[in-house]
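Suppose a colleague, Dr. K., hands you the sequence of a protein chain of 661 amino acids and asks what its three-dimensional shape might be. Before reaching for any lab equipment, you can write down a predicted structure in token form. Begin with the sequence itself:
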Amino acid sequence: CDFGMPVLHKSARYNCRVLVYNRKILLIRPKTALADSGNYRESRWFTAYRRPLFSATNNISSCVSHLLPPDLFPDQREAPFGSQFIQFGDGVTLGCESCEELWTPQASHIEMALNGVDIITNGSGSHHELRKLQSRLELILGATRKCGGVYLYANQRGCDGGRMYFDGSAMIVCNGNILGQGVQFGLDDVEVITACIDLEDVRSYRASLPSLGIQAANATQDAPMPYLTLSQVKMAHADFFSVITQPRELRLHSPEEECCLGPACWLWDFLRRSGASGFFLPLSGGADSSAVAAIVHTMCTLVYHQIKLHGPTSQVAQDLQRLTHTQGTGFMPSSPQEVASHVFTTCFMGSSNSSTSTNSRSRRLAAAIGSYHLTVNIDLMVSAVLKTFAIATGKFPNYESKGGTRGEDLALQNIQARLRMVTAYLFAQLLPWVRGRSGFLLVLGSANVDEALRGYFTKYDASSADLNPIGGINKGDLKRMLLYCADKFDIAVLDEVANAEPTAELRPFDSNENDENDYHTQTDEEDMGMTYAELSYYGRLRKISRCGPVTMFKKLIQIWQHLTPEEVAAKVKKFFAMYSMNRHKMCTITPAYHAEAYSPDDNRFDLRQFLYNVRWTWQFRRIDELVKNAQAHVGGGVGGDSAAASICPPSSNVSDHTKVE
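The predicted structure, expressed as tokens, is then:
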């Protein structure tokens, strides 16, 4: 067995792999490279191990000993400690690396392969991120394709109590070929994959690579890797009739499937461990909240099929029986919709500004997925709050379209959004009681990663929730996921939602609109002053490419060649002005499923200050200089005689921009 545990060795705490055979510790192997980027802060807890350098006078083939606690190990006083590999009595060699070491430039498996190690294990804790599995697989396949050998990869599965979901995908790889691959998304706590391998294939493969032989000879002569010899243990067995596992095709999910399955498994793990009775979702009929509903439906489908496959005594069935208070009854749901009727509540919180089309989509979607659905009108609450304000101040705010100021307009939109949050928590706490059940519901939010980056949501509105399954997914991926779910689950209304124009529906209808039948003309992209596609560019350049305003302008002027330098400058300036103005919202953002590498989540991933100079004085001045240089270079502008767009930052300091789904 190869498993991980923290080990305190000579006053330093190491993250270690522990190799055990027949109740005896063979080797404690400390991790040499720690994960300290993105979601990880491993050096807060552990010290990276540094192996003593080899020299002619310092033969380190013999191991350092680690004293074991006698109360835990009465029959073993000490165990070898260090970055050695093991040679067994039949000549088979085995070494291990851990998680981050696979991703480093001087990966441990390279040294082990050059020293002739046959089998390399990796016990990993690698989280899911959209399109990330391909990169992980390429590293593992490349490791054995270059150097030969067997690579055993086991990865954590499930929600580990935070924003990340660890997506399994255990693998057995030999000489660049996949012999076994585990499921990426599933509800089983443990999955085992096996393969039967002929180790002579490894030796033959390595012998066929002359360049590998040259480097292996140099490595073992200049700095041979230390190893342990365990002559009494044999790993291989000679059996001519054993069926050797043949290579198989790599299985990868589409991004649309990942958007469904990853958050769905995360939600189930969170629900069964939280003590809650289910989920509550404000379902507006828009793309974001409908995407969350589709993810919960995916969760209910996974639960239903798992119970159907393994029966009422399976772990998933027992978890569902505990959630639904049906322990001991052998409860078996007849459909995903029956699962949803027990654990999922949706609510359309309409107002006089809501259209009948969004109400209709919300109602039809709830019926299709089987959620317990309510329709609530919040006008009475809005009116009460505004009357309270009028009594206190003698003033009554109005929308811009009715003669009010921009500040009045935003305040009127925001109060609707915030009252939806208050209503959601009231209903989540009391609805189990209303339905004659016990417990409480977890409130689900539905703000996507692009809106979080731009700050396009009201602080403490319905985006404020207990969990947000889509907070790390961009709008483009969400729309594609809706279309996938519409086809996968035969839910036609999701296709309708995906093709509808995103709108907050927080302003009154225009005089030429028919609020009985037409869609609202208030659109998200018009409110934001930028498109969702542009936001994805900004997000990737800001986080993944580490761009500030000037560098982003330089890159986008190459990418967006259909725009003039003035237009690109205006867009970059507007984004950074709004981003910095709204960055404070990241301090209170709802814990969201981590799915995108450019997530602006301030709590764990995107650690930055939340106060910037919104004018970006030096950076914006430098952009202006670059625009002038570009104009001079082409004799008056790339885009001909078109008028230059305004490139001044917005004069308004109102940061509480409205958006609710």
